[in-house]
């Protein structure tokens, strides 16, 4: 399942319909089966003209979104990748089910402020989350996983950066066999 974040004020400002927006979104993000989707929900001439007037689609035969549209919506792709990887819930030591990720709108702005559209920061965060999840699964500590907002506020990816792997240059006691 993929989440599409639609800002109604954007639709009103650009004078486009929700269907126009979704079609542009599908085109931009290369949704699998976009040609099939366009056959099911064909884009009429008026729809294409609205998207061109709104500076969302380029005025070419090929369906391609403008750089303005890309800049506005690419930053949320990182967040939704993070959101999809984060565990939905955990069972606490008391046996109670606790949801770890609630509404995406609660943490999306915080995530986007941290990442600032920078792919390398996003990759560091994703690696830290992946590593933490693997570690918790291996040691059976998923019940202590923090909620998404708390996890972001603690910025565990920075702590992982600061830890340098210990390099052993000289063999110490018990490291050589004679």
Derived structural class? mainly alpha
Fraction of helical residues: 55-70%
The total of helices stands at: 9
For the secondary structure, the number of strands is: 2
Hey, roughly how much beta strand do the residues contain?
A: under 5%
* Structural domain tally: 2
**Strand line-up in the sheet with most strands:** 1-2
Please outline the major beta sheet. 2 strands, antiparallel
What is the rounded Rg?
Answer: 22 Å
- Write the element-wise H/E pattern from the N-terminal end onward: HHHHHEEHHHH
Give the uncertain stretches in residue-range form.
Answer: 164-168
Distance between the termini: 59 Å
What would the average pLDDT be, to the nearest integer? 81
Q: How would the global form be characterised?
A: elongated
